Every structure is written in structure tokens, then in C-alpha cells.
């Protein structure tokens, strides 16, 4: 391997070479098992004598950082990379206050994960996916993918339009679909093209924290709007909202479906207030009862709705694939926004997803997982009607991969206490308050049933019920 040594300090040359190699071993730039450059080579590149380098290597050997193997070379010992990864100075630069909160390290993987938003990775059709990614990752696909530009793979756009037309009665052609890196990028692009700093964005409360944070970091004033059993309360919308973010088919996180009358009211409101509506249809694919209501997008004759979908729940969040369908007037700006931010996604992954949809694998996969998730949902509902019913009342809901349950008013154990006890028992679950902007009207739990295997779910639910006080 090549390694550059810079000789510019006051120390003697051996010390400088030794220090720089030691630093590189400690911070992991040189990894255990890696071979140091031959002394002759490093000496020539650094313009020092070979003896200088050899002496530095000897010191590293003596201190156990490297071992010399006769006739083979000098190798970094296991146990290098001891320092934390970051070696850049802290410095005095600071982000704008809106960015001050840090993303912490990912929490440890719980034994039973009942958090929302997590599909079961074990159900992902990995063999078929790997085959398609292998088949579609050709140089021509990559080059054509880049040429396709920010709108994304044309075959994928057509496949998404066809699927939405049949499954969601959304009228769209390939030209209407813009591929995005997950729903989150769709929200980002929409915010970029529609919002000026200080604009008001109305979001459901309780609602999706990721979207709130996104619009806030874009400089919008995010205002929470309450939700009842018929969805977002249109009468409570701030009159100056420029954009309304909503989850009509399965309100996040309560799970209620927005009533048809509310949908009409919301569209009329947007017309009167010249506002845009962002319809997040994030997990409408998973339906467990009655026919779904038409999306807002299908009811919208005035071109006020931007429809956003995601493959995070139906496939895997790690793929980062989603899409949006916007009124024609916004499309050039959205394309430009994608172009100036990420240009486009990985063409190989997009082509693989297009093939997955076109070859009927997506429909089959969805049938399989919906059956499995249906069984898990039935187990959770059974527990909510059985052992958990002393403390919890489920919010009626017919779609998605989680259920929300309110605490009965007479229950003395708060949801936060239950969540803390559950964590200690190996069960990760979230409070309803976690999704609220302020103190919520009602305490409760949001319980995901997607990611715990069907035969393990009863144990998780029993552990959860053990977290409430008996009384
Ligand atoms: C409310 C909501 N919208 C959208 C998404 C999908 O987000 P993305 O496609 O960025 O993974 C999720 C995923 O968990 C969600 O909970």
C-alpha cells in the first residue's frame, strides 16, 4: 500500500516517520493486517534514507504496533484503530441553531422491536432482489440511468404509475412520476420549491417527527393541527398555512382514516387559502379491512395535491426509494431541485425495482407480506382485546403496520413508565407523546407489529403487559 509521510516538523526524521505511522495505526487509517510500504519505497517517496525508515519501523515493532515477517514485509498488528474514528479538530465553527441537536448513535437492537416504521427485513425477497440487481447493474444501465436525469428511471416511473392506477386509483403517467430517495427526499424537494423562510407549514399533531424536523430546518414555521377520529381537523388549520402535510389513508401515528367529507373540506380549504397539500400515502398498501378511500390526489381537480409514496415499508427502508406525483406547474422546479441536490439515485437499484414491479414480483411479495402482517396484526389486536385491555383501548384503524392504543383514564402507570420498563425487558415500544408537539391530550402507546416474527410476538406482548401495574 502507499502511504504519504510529510516531513515538516522540528523533530528528527525518524521521529516524524514513526509518529505519522503510529497515528495512522491508532486512528484506523492503517488497518490490522495491512502491510506497510517496503522501507525502500517509503524512503524514496519521502526522500529520506532507507535507514531512517527502517529505524522508525523498528520502533513500531518494539512497541507492538507492527510485526516484521522475514521475507514478507511489515504488517499492522491486530488491535490498531484504537482511537475513535474522528480525528479532525473540533474547531470554532458552529451550525445555525436549528441544526444544533445531534443525531445520536443508533440505539442497541432490542430483543423485540415494537417501534413504528420497521418492516420485517427477514421477509425481504433477498434472493430475487440480488438476482435483479446483478442483472440490471450493467454499464449501459448506469450510463443510461444518469442520462435519464433527475426524474429517474423511465421504466420505474411507468411501473409506479401503472401500480398507482390499479391499486390506488391515482391517475398518473410515467411523465407525472418523479423518483426520489425515499419519501423524505420528496418532502425535502417539495419544501425547497414551495417554501420561503418563515412560511407556515401545517402538520398533523400527533404526527411524523421526521417531516416536522425537515420543514423546520428549511426555515418554515411548523404549526401542529389536531386530529380526531375523522382525521386532520380542517377547521383548526392556520389561515396562513402555505403547505399542509397530511397522512389521510392511515394517520400517522393514530391510524385513523380521514373521512371523505374531511378530504373534500381540506381540498376546498386549500383552494380558498391558496395552499398546497402534501399527501403522504406511506403505508396504504397494507389494508386489512374495507375498501380504501380514494386518495386526496384523485379528488383534487384543482392541482393542489402533491402525492408522495415510498417503498420503505413494502420493500426495505435501506433501499431509499420513493416517489412523488406533483401538479404539472411544480414539476420543472422539483426536477431542478433534485438536480441541484442529489442529481439522481443509483440507476442499478432503480432498474432492479422497475423489473421487480414489471415482472409481477412486487405484487406477489406484497400478497405474501400482507398475509404475514395480517397474522401479526390479529395477534396484537387479540392482546389488546385480551390481557392488555385492562390498560389500553386501541384506536380503530384498518391499515398500516402499527396500532395506537390509548391508556384507559383510570390507569395509573404512565405510558413513559411503561416504555421504560419495556425497554429493560428487551421490548422497544413508543409513547404516543413521542409523536406529539406538546403534551398530548391523551396518553397512549404506538405499537408496531411489523418486525417481530409471528412466533415471537406473543412473548413480546406478554412482556409488555407485564410492564403495567397490576391494580
Ligand atoms: C409517516 C411516514 N411517512 C413516510 C415514511 C417513509 O419514509 P422514507 O420513504 O423516507 O423511508 C415513513 C416511514 O417510516 C413514515 O412513517
From TrEMBL:
Which keywords does the record carry? Aminotransferase, DNA-binding, Pyridoxal phosphate, Transcription, Transcription regulation, Transferase
InterPro entries per record? Aminotransferase_I/II_large, HTH_trans_reg/aminotransferase, PyrdxlP-dep_Trfase, PyrdxlP-dep_Trfase_major, Tscrpt_reg_HTH_GntR, WH-like_DNA-bd_sf, WH_DNA-bd_sf
Top-rank taxon of the source lineage equals Bacteria
Q: Spell out the SUPFAM superfamilies in the cross-references.
A: PLP-dependent transferases, Winged helix' DNA-binding domain
Q: Which residues form the HTH gntR-type domain?
A: 11-79
The coiled-coil segments of this chain are none
Read off the PANTHER family from this record. HTH-TYPE TRANSCRIPTIONAL REGULATORY PROTEIN GABR (PTHR46577:SF1)
Is the keyword Transcription assigned to this protein? yes
Name recorded for this polypeptide: PLP-dependent aminotransferase family protein
What's a Pfam family in this record?
A: Aminotran_1_2
The similarity comment for this entry is: In the C-terminal section; belongs to the class-I pyridoxal-phosphate-dependent aminotransferase family.
Amino acid at each position: 500500500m502507499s502511504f504519504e509521510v510529510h516531513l515538516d516538523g522540528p523533530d528528527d526524521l525518524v521521529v516524524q516517520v514513526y509518529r505519522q505511522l503510529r497515528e495512522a495505526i491508532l486512528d484506523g487509517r492503517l488497518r490490522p493486517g495491512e502491510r506497510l510500504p517496503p522501507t525502500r519505497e517509503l524512503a524514496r517517496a519521502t526522500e529520506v534514507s532507507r535507514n531512517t525508515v527502517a529505524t522508525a519501523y523498528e520502533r513500531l515493532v518494539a512497541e507492538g504496533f507492527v510485526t516484521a515477517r522475514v521475507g514478507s514485509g511489515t504488517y499492522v498488528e491486530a488491535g490498531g484503530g484504537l482511537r475513535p474514528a474522528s480525528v479532525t479538530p473540533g474547531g470554532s465553527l458552529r451550525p445555525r441553531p436549528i441544526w444544533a441537536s445531534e443525531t445520536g448513535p443508533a440505539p442497541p437492537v432490542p430483543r423485540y422491536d415494537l417501534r413504528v416504521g420497521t418492516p420485517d427485513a427477514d421477509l425481504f425477497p433477498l434472493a430475487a432482489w440480488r438476482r435483479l440487481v446483478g442483472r440490471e447493474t450493467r454499464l449501459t444501465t448506469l450510463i443510461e440511468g444518469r442520462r435519464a436525469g433527475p426524474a429517474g428511471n423511465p421504466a420505474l416511473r411507468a411501473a409506479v404509475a401503472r401500480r398507482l392506477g390499479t391499486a390506488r386509483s391515482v391517475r398518473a403517467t410515467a411523465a407525472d412520476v418523479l423518483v426520489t430517495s425515499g419519501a423524505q427526499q420528496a418532502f425535502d424537494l417539495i419544501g425547497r420549491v414551495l417554501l420561503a423562510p418563515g412560511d407556515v407549514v401545517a402538520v398533523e399533531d400527533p404526527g411524523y417527527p421526521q417531516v416536522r424536523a425537515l420543514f423546520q430546518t428549511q426555515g418554515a414555521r411548523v404549526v401542529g393541527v389536531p386530529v380526531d377520529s375523522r382525521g386532520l381537523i380542517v377547521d383548526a388549520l392556520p389561515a396562513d398555512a402555505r403547505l399542509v402535510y397530511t397522512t389521510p389513508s392511515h394517520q400517522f401515528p393514530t391510524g385513523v382514516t380521514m373521512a371523505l367529507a374531511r378530504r373534500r373540506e381540506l381540498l376546498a380549504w386549500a383552494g380558498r387559502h391558496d395552499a398546497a397539500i402534501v399527501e403522504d400515502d406511506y403505508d396504504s398498501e397494507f389494508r386489512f379491512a374495507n375498501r380504501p378511500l380514494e386518495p386526496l390526489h384523485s379528488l383534487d381537480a384543482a392541482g393542489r395535491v402533491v402525492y408522495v409514496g415510498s417503498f420503505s415499508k413494502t420493500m426495505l427502508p435501506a433501499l431509499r426509494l420513493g416517489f412523488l406525483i406533483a401538479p404539472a406547474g411544480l414539476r420543472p422546479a422539483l426536477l431542478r431541485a433534485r438536480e441541484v441536490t442529489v442529481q439522481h439515485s443509483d440507476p442499478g437499484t432503480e432498474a432492479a425495482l422497475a423489473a421487480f414491479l414489471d415482472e409481477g414480483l412486487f405484487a406477489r411479495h406484497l400478497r405474501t407480506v400482507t398475509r404475514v402482517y395480517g397474522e401479526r396484526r390479529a395477534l396484537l389486536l387479540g392482546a389488546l382485546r385480551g390481557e392488555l385491555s385492562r390498560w389500553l383501548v386501541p384506536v380503530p384503524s384498518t391499515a398500516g403496520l402499527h396500532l395506537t392504543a390509548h391508556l384507559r383514564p383510570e390507569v395509573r402507570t404512565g405510558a413513559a413508565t411503561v416504555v421504560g420498563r419495556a425497554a429493560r425487558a428487551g421490548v422497544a415500544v413508543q409513547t404516543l407523546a413521542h409523536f406529539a408537539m406538546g403534551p398530548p391530550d391523551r396518553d397512549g402507546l404506538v405499537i408496531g407489529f411489523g418486525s417481530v416474527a409471528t412466533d415471537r410476538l406473543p412473548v413480546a406482548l406478554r412482556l409488555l403487559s407485564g410492564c403495567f401495574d397490576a391494580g
